[in-house]
Design goal:
Length: 187
């Protein structure tokens, strides 16, 4: 009868084994949860790195469009001066018109490429300044209290990527009005 086991002692050992197994499962669940959080952080980091790269790429591309705009505006200015001159030169006028039309066509093609890749200009809906997509380049002081914080003019278009993720590529550059009792003072 010495081989008989004590059911109470056996039950206590089973409970200890059960408790150890339960703690191991809990520890494994915590490690799995931590691993999932780390994987999500890694994914977010990769997205942020990709976002910065994409933003930089498109911002550089937009810089070329800005240059084309600047040259096209210069062509228009030269055409205006030429047309106002006493003896407008027909060949120079034809060359300037051709240059201007070519620049506009190249700009339109570049915008089309940007649109195909999900880039679109930011269209200002409100006249109230919004720092989430606008950058104040200058403050126009005003004596009209109701104009405080309103956008007075836009200097440069802003752009955002709308697909596959939302990224502000370049904020809209604007002048903003600020109330001042003494009256308006221009930048």
């Amino acid at each position: 009868m010495e081989n008989e086991t004590n059911p109470v002692a056996e039950n206590g050992q089973l409970q200890k084994i059960h408790d150890v197994i339960e703690r191991l499962f809990q520890q494994q669940e915590q490690k799995d949860s931590q691993m999932e959080k780390l994987q999500n952080c890694l994914i977010e980091l990769k997205i942020l790195n990709s976002s910065a790269y994409i933003k930089n790429l498109f911002d550089n591309f937009l810089g070329y469009i800005d240059t084309i705009d600047f040259i096209a505006e210069d062509c228009q200015l030269q055409l205006t001066k030429l047309n106002k001159s006493f003896f407008p030169h027909p060949i120079k006028r034809k060359l300037l018109v051709s240059k201007y039309e070519t620049l506009v066509e190249v700009k339109n093609q570049l915008f089309l490429i940007l649109q195909q890749h999900g880039v679109e200009p930011i269209i200002t809906v409100s006249t109230k300044f919004d720092s989430s997509y606008q950058e104040a380049m200058c403050i126009d002081e005003t004596d009209n209290e109701s104009d405080d914080g309103k956008v007075s003019s836009m200097i440069a278009l802003g752009y955002r990527l709308t697909w596959p993720i939302q990224i502000l590529i370049r904020p809209e550059k604007v002048f903003v009005k600020r109330y001042n009792k003494k009256g308006g003072e221009k930048c």
